[in-house]
Amino acid sequence: DRAAVEALRTGVARVTGPFAAAPILDGREVEGRTRTVASPIDGASLGTVTEADAAMAARAMDAAAHGFSDWAATPAETRAACLERAANAFEADRDTLLHLLQAEAGKTLDDAIAEWREAIDFLRYYAAEGRKLFAAPVALPGPAGEANTLALHGRGVFAAISPWNFPLAIFSGQIAAALMAGNAVVAKPAPQTPLVADRALRLLHGAGIPAGALHLVPGGPEAGAALIGHPALAGVVFTGSTATARAINRALAERDGAILPLIAETGGINAMIVDATALPEQVADDVVASAFRSAGQRCSALRLLLVQEDVAEGMIATLVGAARGLRLGDPRDLATDLGPVIDGQAKARLDAHIARMGREARTHLAGTAPSGLFVAPHIFEIGSVADLREEVFGPILHIVRYPVDGLERVIEEIRAAGYGLTLGIHSRIERTWTRIAAALPHGNVYVNRNMIGAVVGSQPFGGTGLSGTGPKAGGPHYLTRFATERTLTVNMSAAGGSVGLLTLEG
Ligand code: UN1
User: Fold this and answer.
1) Quick one: which of 113, 265, 384, 485 could link to 468 by a disulfide (CB 3.0–4.6 Å)?
2) CB under 6 Å to ligand 1: residues?
3) Angle in degrees, CA 451, 454, 455, rounded to 5
4) Helices then strands, each counted (H, E), the chain
């Protein structure tokens, strides 16, 4: 309702900076090189960040290695309770977190609220899942006279490397999962969004996560490389580009010693297939939301729309009409649909892509944007799926028409691209969508709806192939990958084995 939204907006607008972010090692801020953090909305200074260099990142790893054993020995119930207290603290800090999501990441109020809620959901969900998984060893069947149990243990120090497009939800979700599984964490937020990360980290500490178990290193690739190269590293959780995941994988492979897990959630060339039975108005709604919401800066966003040629003309006209109505501007204005893109580099990449499409593709929509970091929604028509070779991270939709007998070929082309994140299907023929869903490896398939905004616990999120390693964030299997599994087998019939003095340790 309007009044509530207006009240919320007023509360968020009342928050004032400046804010500061700094490396936090063992609960203490560390000094170093400092720079200004500017808002993508208007370039206004929001505060400062002290960035960690390689040496400081290495010190954070040392500190985490030191803090690991106490945290690993903390009962799972206590770890879960810390995350739940953190969820409450995130709720209480609503106005400031929303303010930072808007000012630092350029989000609309809708998007900021959705992300803030998602962060809270991650904290509560992993606490609940963790209670089930980590509370006590599980008894397993075995031969008579033998007791078998299986227990999950933290691995050690996890590096958590998170992106700017969900600087609160993914940042906090990675940390919560790694902590719940009994790991110590060194978190490196994206260089574009250190302020909201710093705020979240302080809330986590305030909720009882020990200073020794969670450390913050704002910084760039140099700090990231120091984390990945550090001898204490036990695992990496990463969300970002496919290229960076590959570089991390390579660096992990070069290390001496243990083989370490990488949990990566990366990019996609996400497609939606629309056949002639789809409802045009619903398609238009769902395409506009999937392609243009958050200015297309979601890894789940729709990039490639495949429309059956019989209905393509009308469908494109409806879409163009709907997209033309989108408002671009300051995301703190409630009437705004699309805020800015994250930085000058992102804008330059998008502008270059738009220029290339202007030459190579048929242009259906090319709006103009206000000055600054704004990119207007664009709709281009290309000849085939293969014409789009890379993930384009912004409000740019590509359309391909396919003939009624061309569905198999389209499926084959999507598979050949190698990404497997989100997939949308609009069809009222069940046989069609079951066939498409079965033929493609995508992690999140959405039928007759939009394809963004996966809900924690309901639509666990993550892809396959070039899109990530799995398991899926916000799903029941995610925490296990952060842990090691160990069995204990005891011969109960051997002398001394059956006297009942034996207690199995968790
Ligand atoms: C990302 O954009 O990095 O479903 C992943 C969604 C979000 C995507 C998060 N969970 O839209």
Assistant:
1) 265
2) 163, 165-166, 239, 298-300, 452-454, 461
3) 145
4) 14, 22
